[in-house]
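G., before I forget:
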Amino acid sequence: MTNHRGRARRLGDDVNTDYIIASRRKKETLDENILKQYLLEAVDPAFAATVRAGDILVAGTNFGCGSAMEVAATVVLAAGIPIVLAGSFARSFYRNAINNGLLPIECDTSDIREGDTIALSIEPSGTTIVNERTGGRETRAPLGGIAGDILAAGGLVSYLQREGRFVR
Amino acid sequence: MTGQTISEKILSAKSGGSALAGDVVVCDVDLVLGTDASAPMAIGYFERMGGTRVHDASRVVFALDHYAPPSSAATKGFHDQVRAFAKKHGVRVFEVGEGISHQIAVERGLVRPGMLVVGADSHTVTCGAVNAFATGVGSSDLAAAMLTGQLWFRVPQTIRVVLDGARPPGTSAKDVALTLVSTLGAGGAEYRALEFTGPAARDFSFDDRLVLSNLAVEAGAKAAVWHPDAVLDAHVAGFVSDRGEPVSPDVGARYARELVVDLASIGPTVALPHAPNNVVPIARVPDTPIHMVFLGTCTGGRVADYHEALAVLERGGGQLAAGVQLVVTPASSEVERQLAADGTLVKLARMGATITMPGCGACCGTSGVIPGDGMNVLSTANRNFKARMGNATASIYLASPAACAAAALTGRITDPRSPA
């Protein structure tokens, strides 16, 4: 279906949404194109300036925990990051990502380092993630059900424009 | 068929089928909560979805709680946007100063046993104390729920939390909740619901239950539902028209795991910077000066919390330590009214407390007092992430109202059982 090749931006476990974008930032604007300059500032104030379009966020477990604020997903997309790999996701971030067309992939990220080149092959039969440095390869089953349909539609807005309601 | 957990039963009833953990269901939502921090974005999604009317405005409530009062043109703009949408669609708005969305929803009886509640605020799980399935969502899901009256869910597995043993005097619900989060870990309840039960459950007041359900999301819980009992009956006894339909699990319901909480082993605790699961007994906290004490939020801003704090303050003479700022932000106007009526507020004010408008206050740096550079804060809130209160150089410690009060007296983290 699609392929993507990008640079890994390595994060740890339990990265909460306040770290992705601080609540105090979003009280001034919800414009993700402004907010993106503060992306992950609590983790590294210089992070946002080093992001290149096509970069891939790579995290440990429980990515996106804490607040359910949706700017935590839209600001990642606005920064040019289309995919997040994590050992696991907090459920509210996971839903917000899918609803906005940001691709969250649960996989083993333990061997991925900052700067590794990650190649993804995204097919209807599943997604294969290859770490070009290590040769490590993992294939994950496609996201099924309504979540898969929302993602395939490009997000919740286009899904509901088309369907008008949730269709099981 | 197999027995069902409370979450499986509620999600079955609301989807018109029979669901077990792992199933994906589309449910009718009973109550939809939005805030000034989440509704503005939801309104944008709603309009882009082509929304022209809210499916059932009587099930939707907005609370202007995060920016109370608004401190900028932008936040005032969010309020006006929410008010205009609400007026157009007939949605009820709880105004600036009326309190935190899930606190209002619970204390005004909008949440009833057996309900499915979604709120665009992660601490919506608090409503699980009412024996409801209540969970936090983002703004796009809030928009979808307003537009269609429904939302999809993957039915979660459940961790059965068994409260057992005698809670020692001086151990508050917050200490139990922090210990539970620490035991589970930050992602220990990810994708899962909690059910609270056990021989000691009856010793947890309704307000205590709100604290445990509230903090459950810090372990990643999707919902945190209490079994129905006499404490729940007493809470709903005052409801005028509809007392809901309490839901108990079936015998033979399947649980992901059972976690027995030995209350006798829990004493005053503190969550150290910068994570709510970074919990240690207060006796093991290194000597730590405290510059600001915050009594408030949807965790620790209710009447019982202020009574707990005031008792410690009065027992210790009521003289705040030099250089300590004590900030008091009731969770709702109803809490504020009760504290005014019983004299608590005036006593706190005479001690030198800064008393602010009800709402989220200083919890997430969106309104109220922002700590200064390098300050240590001891707070009754639920999150102590770096920069959470609006200053990345401040360090936030979380504890019970009693421990916060003890620190206000001594200017250091202090065991509330032995104030200076």
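Residues 190 and 220 of chain B are 4 Å apart (CA to CA). The mean pLDDT of chain B is 97.

More on Monday.
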